[in-house]
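Please annotate this fold before class:
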Amino acid sequence: MSIKGGIHTAHERGMRIGCTTIQLFTKNNTQWAAKPLSEEDIKNYKRLEKKSRIRPVVAHSSYLINLCARDPLVLKKSRRGFKDELDRCERLGIPYLVFHPGAHMERGEQEGIERVAESLNTLHESTQGYDVMSVLEVTAGQGTAIGFRFEHLKKIIDALEMKERVGVCIDTCHLFAAGYDITTEPGYERTFDEFEDIIGLERLVVFHVNDSKRELGSRVDRHEHIGKGRIGTVAFRFLMNDPRFVKVPKILETPKSEDMHEDVMNLRKLRGLLPRRTRDKSLRSGSATA
């Protein structure tokens, strides 16, 4: 959701189209510096959050941030920027901050993994007592990005001193582009069995629900509307009806215009994959997470 007009407006937009969970940026995601949140900003946000009953809210970090950057100046800016976002989430009461692990810039995957873990250890040490969780996102593996294998995330988590501060976000487009085939029931089950074996389903706290413009294993991150890409509708039926993930927030990151009619279309399609009784009950209770 856009935060144009103030961060609280994300809730207004979410209510307008019937969301039960939303994702937002806590500041302009294309700039390093940002105006600090004022007490009025926080007051307005919490007032609208209470009114909207949208739970949980998920934040996404700036795309500029690279916690394994090769350039020392970029790494310093990334760590400072991530700390600022943790601060913002904590003040707003946002429980999850999703971020891409980063790109190793030809230094190699292992060095990139070690640098991300080092960054997170430093950041968590400086934010002891915070409730906000740093959430590693599975990536498509484009360029030198790390995080396109479950093993990458496992190695990062294993190197952390405060493991309880970290969760994982699965983006369905990224997952498919990285080579995990979720388009058939055996492939879907195999993928999540592998996730369970390597990382553990208890760490999976957010889904980004996106179809893919590109083919399986393309390593290219291009989101498409639900059912209109290479993943297709069947995989999303598996996900929406998986009892393990009923309470896990599911966020659309599909292309949209200002009136959000595309979001309405995608929400309707996802909710339509649920049995009628389940769909009606979840919408009344607010437990539907798409």
Notes: Residues 72-92 form the longest helix (21 residues). The chain has one domain: 9-285. DSSP finds ten helices and nine strands in the chain. The domain at 9-285 is CATH 3.20.20.150 (TIM Barrel).
